[in-house]
Amino acid sequence: MDDTLLALRAFNRFHTQFVVGLDAQYLGTPLTLTEARLLYEIGTRGEALAVELQSFLALDPGYASRLLRRFEAEGWIVRGRGSDARQRPVALSEAGQALLADLDTRQRAVLEDRLKPLGDADRRVLVGALDTARGLLSGEERAGYTIRTHRPGDMGMVTARQAILYAEQFGWGAPMEALLGEVTAAFLRSFDPARERCWIAECGGTIAGSIFATDGGGGVAKLRLLYVEPHARGLGIANDLVSRCIAFAREAGYTRMTLWTHTILESARRIYAAHGFRIVATATHTDFGEPVAGETWELAL
User: Fold this and answer.
1) One domain, residues 25 and 96
2) Is residue 23 pLDDT above 60, yes or no?
3) In this structure, are 197 and 296 located in the same domain?
4) Is the Cα torsion angle 24, 28, 31, 32 positive or negative in sign?
5) Domain boundary among 79, 98, 117
6) Helix (H, G, I), strand (E, B), or coil: what is residue 222?
7) Do 188 and 77 fall into the same domain?
8) H or E stretch including 276?
9) In this structure, are 67 and 163 located in the same domain?
10) Are residues 270 and 181 in the same domain?
11) What is the value of pTM for the model shown?
């Protein structure tokens, strides 16, 4: 069986148990997990046709009808007018709304208790991972992104993610990771907010990319460590980051901006060229293992 399928099935079992979905009575209410989902959907929609609920929740038609009959008998729903039962929309009654409110309160309490061990950083990672998983599995259009300046912990994350991506794509291992670590460590040690800046892109609360503007001396700014996570590409993040980096360098009074890249990084090179950078030097090196052509680009500010 495919590893992805195994992982998805394992997570599904974990998640069901995590939200106490295996209890016969869901969260101490008179509902099963399926009934709770049905109640929630009716409440969220305001009113809905039975066929819509059945389709959305992937329920057998007969089973869905039995659940709705039970809801009606318990006084949790009311039916509107229609030519037949299938065309009569259902909505929550006052009793149903009260039950849903109680269910929501209980679920929030359980989840808040489960999330207590997670700090703010871990919660941001969790939100980002859930957003990514939902987007990949649903095929929904990806959410937008935000850009902020750096905060504690970002340098380690940026170093790790870029090292992993370069190793996976090009086989650049320890030497590249060491270089990345040196750049981020030097940035933190000598950080001058008036002359230097790091921008972090986020999607769904988790890091999706970065760029640095550092002081190269002699009125020259350096553009460094531009990258975007694979799942966030195509949103315009790299172009936005480069634009911010150039604008900052101009405002800070630099006269030139330089960067070092490689011929195999074609997407990044196109962005640099679009912003007016020009190649001023090339040199093949073996710093990361196999020979690779490096390039120095420059932009007059």
Assistant:
1) yes
2) no
3) yes
4) negative
5) 117
6) strand
7) no
8) none
9) no
10) yes
11) 0.62
Residue 241, both tokens: 């980051």
pLDDT tens track for 30-79? 888 888 888 889 888 888 888 888 888 888 888 888 989 898 999 998 88
C-alpha dihedral (254, 256, 261, 267), degrees to nearest 10: 90
List residues bridging with 285 in a β-sheet: 292
> Is residue 218 scored above 90 in pLDDT?
yes
In whole angstroms, what is the distance from residue 294 CA to residue 297 CA? 10
What integer pLDDT is reported at residue 245 of this predicted model?
Answer: 97
Dump the DSSP string for 170-218.
H---HHHHHHHHHHHHHHHHT--TTT-EEEEEEETTEEEEEEEEEE-ST
| Within a domain: 106 | yes
Q: 226-264 pLDDT, tens per residue?
A: 999 988 888 899 999 999 999 999 999 999 999 999 999
Domain CATH code at residue 249: 3.40.630.30
Q: Note whether residue 167 is domain-resident.
A: yes
pLDDT surpassing 90 at residue 300: yes
CA distances (Å), origin 250, targets 172, 180, 192, 246: 33, 25, 16, 6
Total domains in the chain come to 2
Dihedrals phi, psi of 213, to nearest 5 degrees: -115, 120
* CA 253 – CA 300 distance, rounded (Å): 12
> Could you tell me the two tokens for 26?
């869901």
Q: Is residue 21 included in any domain, yes or no?
A: yes
Same domain, residue pair 95 and 155: no
Strands (E), the chain: 77-79, 90-92, 146-149, 197-203, 206-215, 220-228, 256-262, 278-285, 292-300
* Domain ranges, residue 267: 146-300
Measured at the alpha carbon of residue 222, what is the angle toward residues 216 and 223, in degrees to the nearest 5? 165
